[in-house]
Amino acid sequence: MTIGRLNHVGVATPSIEKSIALYRDLMGATKIHEPFDLPPQGVRVCFVDTPNSQIELIEPLGENSPILKFLEKNPLGGQHHVCFEVHDIHAAKAEMEAKGAKVLGEPRIGAHGTPVIFVHPKDMGGVLVELMETPKDGGH
Ligand SMILES: CC[C@H](C(=O)O)C(=O)SCCNC(=O)CCNC(=O)[C@H](O)C(C)(C)COP(=O)(O)OP(=O)(O)OC[C@H]1O[C@@H](n2cnc3c(N)ncnc32)[C@H](O)[C@@H]1OP(=O)(O)O
Ligand SMILES: [Co+2]
């Protein structure tokens, strides 16, 4: 596997609306996408475009949301994960596991409509890493 483009930085927040206001009014973001729910992943999502990548704002959705514990520990929210593109998600998963890294579950469809996996932060120097298959149209 070769590490690909930084697709997005995931930022957990207790309020997408409040975070949108911060990125728009303080940081000068001009392209902020419409928020949407992703029930299978337990999050509400909003993408904020930057010139070379995206910030993915994620708010808990439902009582089994995977980001609830993170927000308990970080009530203001904070940087939650980084997402790199890969060519083939199944090959990436197999390679991660062969190298001894823990992959959290099976590939699932992520917010960009392509399969994603997560690598446990304990095996990546404390950083939760999302790997996402590059969209067929090349993405943003
Ligand atoms: C897919 C939709 C969208 C997309 O881009 O397409 C998304 O990105 S959704 C993003 C949200 N989904 C996920 O994060 C799924 C994968 N995550 C998990 O399975 C869990 O959140 C997990 C295993 C990373 C953490 O589990 P939990 O929340 O139950 O917390 P633990 O107390 O068990 O954590 C164990 C250990 O890891 C540290 N930790 C937890 N989260 C993070 C983090 N985001 N970054 C760095 N480290 C993290 C936590 O502090 C614990 O450390 P310890 O020293 O043992 O206290
Ligand atoms: Co993400």
TrEMBL record:
Q: Which InterPro entries match?
A: Glyas_Bleomycin-R_OHBP_Dase, MeMalonyl-CoA_epimerase, MMCE/EMCE_epimerase, VOC_core
Any one Gene Ontology molecular-function term assigned to this protein's record:
methylmalonyl-CoA epimerase activity
* Keywords per UniProt: Isomerase, Metal-binding
Instruction: Cite the Gene3D superfamilies for this sequence.
Output: 2,3-Dihydroxybiphenyl 1,2-Dioxygenase, domain 1 (3.10.180.10)
Q: What is its EC number?
A: 5.1.99.1
A Pfam match: Glyoxalase_4
PANTHER family of this UniProt entry?
A: METHYLMALONYL-COA EPIMERASE, METHYLMALONYL-COA EPIMERASE, MITOCHONDRIAL
**Location of the VOC domain:** 5-134
EC category name: isomerase
Family, per the entry? Belongs to the methylmalonyl-CoA epimerase family.
Annotated protein name in UniProt:
Methylmalonyl-CoA epimerase
NCBIfam families assigned:
metmalonyl_epim
Point out the gene that encodes the protein. Answer: mce
Q: Which domain of life is it from?
A: Bacteria
Q: What is the lineage of its organism?
A: Bacteria, Pseudomonadati, Pseudomonadota, Alphaproteobacteria, Sphingomonadales
